[in-house]
Amino acid sequence: MAEVQLQNVRQVFRRSGGALVEAVADVSLSIRDHEFVCLIGPSGCGKTTLLQLVAGLLPVTSGDIAVDGVAIAGPSPERGLVFQRDSVFPWMRAIDNVSYGLKCRGVDKAKRLDIARAYLRQVGLADVERSWPRELSGGMLKRVAVATVFANSPRVLLMDEPFGALDYVTKLQLHQLLLTLWGQYRPTVLFVTHDVDEAMLLADRIIVMKGGRVADDRQITLARPRTVESLALSEAIVHKEVLLRHLGLGALVQDGTAQP
Amino acid sequence: MARISSGASRLQVDPLGIVGLVALIALWWALSRFHIVSQLSLPTPDGVAAAIAQNFFSSSYLAGYHLGEGGLAANLAYTIVNVVVALIVACVVGVTLGFVSARNDLVRVLADPLMLTAGTIPILVTAPFFLVWFGVSRSAQIALLILYDATIVYLFAQRAATNLDPTYAAAGRTLGAGEGRIVVDILLRGALPEVFGGIRIALAGAWGLEAFSELLGAPKGIGRIIQAMSADMDTQMVFAAIVALAVVAVAFDVATGAVFGFATRWKRAARL
Is the bond preceding A225 in cis, omega lying within 30 degrees of 0? Predict the structure, then answer.
């Protein structure tokens, strides 16, 4: 079980000039166990800040965040985070990166290396376990990052535009990998993205943020496994039109029926 | 590029460096052998080598100058111990203060003026004060070297910790790393390449500074040999002491370079 509840969450920053900025404004959400939720919205809408609040990397200014009714207190391996930037430690070999969370939790060396090997195999990197991160491509590094988080058995998986910098083919491969691992281990996922198609392909539910607030909350009931054809179904097109309007791209939408 | 395999690490020797060294010795030999420069000012390389060999492990000649019975080796050992002890203390102080100041603004505000001032004042100007404070003892030279080394290591450690992407520490925290692991596994290991650079620079300068501080007053050491021999115009022994110190300094630099290179071998891995 891993139900994430956010109650009247606010996050206020003070800029270097002294001005206060409300990055997250009174957000209340309930994310169900095993749900795959995508957070989408324009740049600066507060989605990454919200993710960092749930990760416990930032303290809330006010409000409450709880997992299964227990208020969070700082970062925890039960809430794994895949970062937008490279977070794979360049000074550790691939297998040491994947097993690092287990090492922090005191798992003995032989066992944690076995677990790490199993996850590296699952993400297709069994043959590069002894490689240094510098020797791996961007897509391979993301696979290491995904394996590292899953090896730690998180109940909640947080992903901050993890595939944003990857090429189209690698991104689609990683979508499939992520969905496979999610299907197998079933963590609750909160996935930040700018990419409407990515959100449509992955999510059970898409939450749109604007100005630090929840502007829309849409259930995506497209059957899984989803394909490129799934995105051409009328339900998907309606969702996509609404999401594009939310992102200020209404001019791209020919049919005027879909409204946010 | 010739490579000498040495266990897990590889020592790289640049042939051009060897050619340069041989050319320098040949020039030295020619200048002194053909009396282009007086042998009183520039003794021959073979004469210097003979002086080193004759006085290395024991030397009644050096003992006559109250420089101990142990010859060049004992005096070298005195100098080496001072340099190494000072470097170890400076690394502990410099790295700790550098890392803490990178993460804590209050410590940075307090430590920066102190360390930057220490780095700005010419170290040779401060040397006589150490002699007054500590007397003619090992402590004076070690204290002077600590001041010099710690300033350099502090600045490199602070810059390394400041430049390290904070994403790594955040990733560590979300994986369950506590503060101790964040410091040891992430901050220290991520900052090592830059810190090592600072340590090598400090070490390179420390040999000359140690010899200089011995000139001001020390029971023995390479600097004391140079001082005593200069007073009696024995340039051959002066050169012998300088060459012995240079060889030790280069050997230490090569050894630390190999150790540091092995510890940061991930940095040299081929980028895909």
Answer: yes
**Are B272 and A86 within 8 A, CB to CB?**
no
pLDDT band for position A256 (50/70/90)?
low
- The pLDDT of residue B135: 84
Whole-angstrom distance, CA of residue A85 vs CA of residue B164? 13
Cβ distance of B192 and A86 shorter than 8 Å? no
Q: Give the number of C-alpha atoms closer than 13 A to the C-alpha of residue A238, restricted to the C-beta side.
A: 11
| CB–CB contact A134 B165 (8 Å) | no
Residue whose tokens read 């990733």: B171
Nearest to A85 among B165, B266, B269 (CB): B165
pLDDT in tens, B124-180: 788 888 888 888 889 999 999 999 999 999 999 999 999 999 999 999 999 999 999
On chain A, the residues whose CB falls within 8 A of the CB of B262 are none
List, in sequence order, the alpha helices (H) in B136-270: 138-163, 166-174, 179-181, 189-216, 222-231, 235-263
Å between B100 CA and nearest CA of chain A:
20
In this predicted complex, what is the ipTM? 0.92
- Residue A14: how many CA atoms within 13 Å on its side-chain side? 4
